[in-house]
Amino acid sequence: xxxxxxxxxxxxxxxxxxxxxxxxxxxxxxxxxxxxxxxxxxxxxxxxxxxxxxxxxxxxxxxxxxxxxxxxxxxxxxxxxxxxxxxxxxxxxxxxxxxxxxxxxxxxxxxxxxxxxxxxxxxxxxx
Length: 127
Known about the structure:
Layout: H1 12-25, H2 32-44, H3 69-72, H4 77-86, H5 106-120
């Protein structure tokens, strides 16, 4: 005797299709400003001056002031990219700077590098 299927099983293909559609087109990359606010501002401050709520005098190293053209101009775009992606320690800076490469997409990190360049109003050093 053939087994009867419950009517809910008919909804499975529809649910899987809806779920796939949502995750393929419904999720967009965050803007550099959104990512900066979400991941950087706690230490570097909303305006990028190194005065975020997590920046304290007890820290062995102060968070970088992203508006300081003199200091930011000493860095290459690659330095900034890898500091964000792999953390400060990867570029010989503070290990307090976390690595965001597992959290932020590569194209979003590249956009953050450009955003930081606008904050400092400078040109990154050539390689």
